[in-house]
Amino acid sequence: MSPDKDPEKSLDPAVDVDASTVNEPTVDHPKDDTSLSHHQIPDPPDGGLVAWLQVLAGFFMLFNTWGIVNSYGAFQTFYETDLLSSKSPSAIAWVGSIQGFLLLLIGSLTGPIFDLGYFRSLLFTGSFMVVFGMMMTSLSTQYYQVFLAQGVCVGLGAGCLFIPSVAVLATYWSKRRAMAIGIAASGSSIGGIVYPALFHQLQPRIGFAWATRVIAFIALATLTLCIIVMKRRVTTSIKRKLFDWTALREPPFVLFTAGLFLGFMGVYIPFYYISPYAIQKTSSSANLAFYFIPILNAGSVFGRIVPNIIADKMGSINTLIPCAFACAILAFSWIAVESTGGLLAFAILYGFFSGSFVSLPPSALVGLAPDMRLVGTRMGMSFSVAGLGVLIGTPVAGAILNIPAGQYLHAQIFCAVIALVGAIFLTAARIAKVGTALMAKT
User: What is the superkingdom listed in this entry's lineage (predicted)?
Assistant: First the structure.
């Protein structure tokens, strides 16, 4: 299989997983004479129809990747009470956890494939697997079938789409890049609002199978739009290594990655268990309790845009640290919430600050990398470890809570303590980075 060829000439940019780190590509000199010289490479348009279409495509790709992952709480609630009621909450949570884990793990592995020029292959493969996985989920009646279809297949497909959704978009923007990426990143939260609400409304009326198929058809339509309009501005044919051993000798990187691991381990626990908590611990009706999941994601919409804008002024890691501490404080406060209004306030605030864990780490890792050529590799390493946190966090919480008895305290403490320790590690990474910079000057 040969790399996909776009109409643009073959260039060799320093574009990796996070193309926002690059201001101007450099030229690869192929044997033919069709390449452009360095001075002929146009600056990013920073606007215009084609650039905004990339934002739209990036929005829908994240709508159907992180958006579906963020929607799993709706399926968790349904599975616990209906289709998979014989299984424990912990076992059911593994389905959503494997989705998020594979999204991050496969996303890091597909970075080098993207760099080699196989953008269209990743786009087609990822789109097919997401739609096929949801279609197969609609036919599932056993736990292993749900696990393979919704967990593994959808997770693999989402991983194929994650990198292109950001890397292609970023090459079209310069001065307004953070804004453009923030708008696209909000697709993950919008998906986390639309898909759970849709499932909740349709499932009682047309059944689980057709409600899930409607989601699959929406994914098919929106991903088809992405296939049509998404277009690489700069093509590449560079090779990138998957692992950089020197990173393990750098305290800022190691501490930051540990902080991400712990943060991702705790951050999704409320997304999975807030609905049953609302029913048992507050006066919320079953219908209202379900909508706490979309409310969390609604808060996350702004949490993926506003911190990005602030980060342009303050720095990404400086913005991420307060957000991480805010998540920990809110997780501790969750223990005391016993009213519908209190839980509503918690959901909005927690959704906002937890949104930063998806939008800020890529640019924060850029600031920690000593060489821009290592950014993509180090992002892959860091997000692979963070994916392990996503994988084990919610199942562990499910194992230590007792939903039938209404006992959530242990899971809440676990969420809060893990988030707090993660924030401390992120702070330590910032301090280590300052120390490293001072040592370099002396």
Answer: Eukaryota
In a domain, 330, yes or no: yes
Residue 25 pairs in a beta bridge with none
Is 34 a member of any domain? Answer: no
pLDDT tens sequence for the chain (442 residues): 444 444 333 333 333 333 333 333 333 333 333 333 344 446 777 778 888 898 899 999 999 998 998 888 889 889 988 889 889 888 998 998 899 889 888 877 777 777 777 888 999 999 999 999 999 999 999 999 999 999 999 999 999 998 777 778 777 877 777 677 778 888 888 998 899 989 989 999 999 999 999 999 999 999 999 999 988 776 655 666 777 788 888 889 999 999 999 999 998 899 888 888 998 888 888 888 888 888 988 888 888 788 877 887 888 889 999 999 999 999 999 999 999 999 999 999 999 999 888 778 877 877 777 765 666 677 778 888 888 888 888 889 888 988 777 889 999 999 999 999 999 999 999 998 887 766 666 6
CA gap 254, 426 in Å, rounded? 10
Q: Is 378 among the domain residues?
A: yes
Enumerate residues 6+ apart whose C-beta is below 8 A from 169.
19, 54, 55, 57, 58, 180, 181, 184
Residue 4 in any domain: the answer is no
Collapsed DSSP state (helix, strand, coil) of residue 173: coil
Strand, coil or helix: 261 = helix
What single letter denotes the amino acid at residue 60?
F
- Which pTM does this prediction carry? 0.76
Q: Which residue has the tokens 């044997």?
A: 31
What's the domain count of the chain? Answer: 1
Q: How far apart are CA 265 and CA 283, in angstroms?
A: 29
Distance of alpha carbon 257 from alpha carbon 2, whole angstroms: 34
Domain that holds residue 146: 19-25+44-441
Helix intervals (H) in 36-88: 49-63, 66-70, 72-81
Domain holding 340: CATH number?
A: 1.20.1250.20
Q: What is the DSSP letter of 42?
A: P
Residue whose tokens read 């540990």: 258
